[in-house]
Design brief:
The complex is a heterodimer of chains A (285) and B (278).
Chain A: H1 2-35, E1 39-40, E2 45-46, H2 52-59, H3 61-95, H4 99-110, H5 117-122, H6 125-128, H7 133-140, H8 155-179, H9 183-191, H10 196-225, H11 228-233, H12 241-250, H13 254-276, H14 281-284
Antiparallel strand pairs in A: 1-2
Chain B: H1 6-32, H2 51-57, H3 65-95, H4 101-113, H5 116-130, H6 136-161, H7 165-173, H8 178-207, H9 210-213, H10 222-232, H11 237-270
Helix pairs in contact in B: 1-11, 2-11, 3-6, 3-8, 3-10, 4-6, 5-6, 6-8, 7-8, 8-11
Classes of the chains: A mainly alpha (285), B mainly alpha (278).
């Protein structure tokens, strides 16, 4: 009797979250799957059951190119954010001794997360433009004679923006895991004659893996699902899957956008499923 | 204290560069927003003025910045309150290991990792097909919750993983009902973390772009308005707007952090009445 009471209260407490997710997560996914089989005229969509959208998607060479580009962005961003994020977290967790300083530095790293991504993207323009700070500086140093054209509206600027926006998704979980490493393990390693590098590679790195995995999930999914960073930072000259979808939406071709979205969702979920094999998220919080 | 190794200074320098990388660009547009009236989008500064800020307060040729700001703030508050309430309830539920908790947990994780444009597209399609009016306070509100609630839930997990159950047991032993235990023991203890959940709720909503894109209807939120400006505004007025809303974000963050800090101080001062014969 007690147990069932507990169950019922549990359900009641979980009900609001469940309802929101049903209405605004599950239902939209179902809707997208349904609409992906519909047909479209130039200005409207009509219910049907046809595979045209998928056929077109899988037969177009553009699809493969764009999925390839998306994975490329995800991989490069992942590698860079991991390297930077790990180093930053390592410094804060093991080299900063005062807890107050640690908290302050941690906040410095996380505050940009609570500001606007759009503005953080816009703020790169005075740096990277043809007459931007980077080009002006390099010319005045005599490193280059002419402005570099590939700084803005290129793969370079897209990845730079991704790293700028998403590195803290690596820093936070990695720092969180590092802070929970028992410091006596490090002492033990040193007492047994391990060098700093050996301690890092054989003690800290393995123990930090769950944090790395959580950060990886964040960064990979954010980059794979992005459409606005690529559009803005490449000046619409580069494409990824998100842009493919948003272009179709712009042309009111919802069924075709939905089909691409379904394939994107499947890709993302497969990647997550693989990553989740390495970590139990709930235990790591 | 042991002497700092050389590694410390290398890492500290790296950290400094990282901070510069994080904040440098926003500082730059902060400076550039004070361009003179003839100034362009990059250095050199063409005089120093507040011309572009004043321009913001005048009638705009395009868009409705202040309307968008009001809507974003309103929506942020709505999302914040909902996120706090729903996350706390769900956090309490998950402590009870109810049937179906696994499924709900994975749904929340899916909500976090699903590409935002899918939410935008799906919610937009549903509202269209059902003949409902797409509006920032309905479809936009719901779409944003799918982004803020998982964060709130994860924070609640972190909070309850560190929660000392013996406080509850003590309350129960002294005859408190389940509701009294919650109201007078659990909620006060987790209150500072709720400030954190509120901070996530408000700021993530206030800055959200992708999930609101197709769900806000005919009235833009501020991020949508700003993005619209990037395509047709080529003066530093966009920097002035960026600087202002970033300053607003910083003020909000500072208020939340200050709130949490004051709460912590008060608790340290008033927290324990052990041994005072109360």
């Amino acid at each position: 009797m007690r147990l069932t009471n507990r169950q019922v209260i549990g359900w009641l407490e979980a009900a609001p979250l469940t309802l929101v997710l049903l209405a605004f997560l599950i239902a939209p996914i179902v809707m997208i799957v349904i609409v992906s089989f519909w047909g479209a005229t130039e200005f409207s969509i009509y219910p049907a059951f046809q595979l045209d959208n998928y056929e077109f998607l899988f037969s177009s060479p553009v699809t493969y190119k764009v999925f390839g580009a998306t994975l490329k962005y995800a991989f490069i961003t992942w590698a860079l954010t991991l390297a930077i994020g790990f180093t930053v977290a390592y410094f804060m967790a093991f080299h900063v001794r005062s807890q107050t300083v640690q908290i302050a530095l941690f906040l410095v790293c996380t505050i940009p997360f609570w500001t606007s991504n759009i503005i953080r993207m816009i703020s790169w323009i005075p740096f990277l433009g043809r007459n931007g700070i980077a080009n002006q500086t390099l010319i005045s140093w005599g490193v280059i004679d002419q402005p570099l054209e590939w700084l803005l509206y290129s793969d370079f600027s897209v990845i730079l923006a991704f790293v700028h926006l998403y590195t803290l998704f690596m820093v936070v979980p990695i720092f969180n895991t590092m802070m929970r490493i028992d410091k006596s393990l490090l002492e033990a390693a040193r007492d047994n004659g391990a060098s700093g590098l050996q301690t890092l590679l054989h003690v800290i790195l393995p123990l930090t893996k769950p944090g790395i995995m959580i950060g990886t999930i964040f960064v990979v999914t954010l980059v794979m699902g992005d459409f606005i960073t690529v559009r803005f930072m490449s000046g619409s000259q580069r494409a990824n899957v998100g842009r493919l979808i948003s272009n179709d939406i712009g042309l009111l071709q919802y069924p075709s956008a939905a089909a691409t979205a379904v394939v994107l969702l499947c890709t993302v979920l497969i990647v997550i499923a693989i990553l989740l094999r390495f970590v139990n998220i709930r235990k790591e919080l | 204290m042991e002497k700092r190794s050389r590694g410390f200074y290398v890492l500290a320098a790296f950290f400094g560069l990282f901070v510069l990388f994080l904040y440098g660009p926003i500082l730059t547009i902060g400076i550039l927003s004070f361009q003179g009236p003839q100034g362009g989008l990059t250095f050199p500064m063409n005089g120093v003025s507040t011309y572009w800020f004043r321009d913001l307060f005048q009638e705009q040729a395009v868009g409705d910045i202040w309307g968008a700001f009001r809507r974003s703030t309103m929506l942020g508050l709505m999302v914040m309150i909902t996120t706090v309430v729903v996350s706390v309830m769900a956090g309490l539920a998950f402590r009870k290991r109810f049937a179906g908790s696994g499924v709900l947990f994975y749904a929340a994780i899916t909500s976090l990792v699903i590409p935002s444009i899918l939410i935008s597209l799906g919610v937009g399609l549903i509202f269209n097909q059902l003949g409902l009016k797409i509006h920032w306070a309905t479809s936009g509100f719901g779409a944003q919750l799918t982004w803020t609630l998982p964060f709130g839930l994860l924070i609640m997990f972190a909070v309850f993983n560190r929660f000392d159950k013996s406080y509850e047991e003590a309350a129960r032993d002294q005859g408190a009902t389940a509701w009294q235990t919650l109201r007078h023991v659990v909620l006060p203890i987790i209150a500072p973390s709720l400030i954190g959940v509120g901070l996530f709720g408000f700021t993530l909503s206030y800055d959200e772009f992708a999930r609101t894109l197709l769900t806000s209807g005919s009235y833009n939120t501020l991020p949508l308005e700003i993005f619209g400006m990037t395509t047709n505004v080529t003066t530093p007025v966009i920097y002035a707007l960026g600087t202002l809303t970033t300053a607003f974000s910083f003020a909000i963050i500072a208020a939340f952090l200050l709130g949490a800090w004051i709460m912590g101080k008060r608790r340290a001062r008033l927290g324990s009445d052990a041994g005072k014969g109360l």
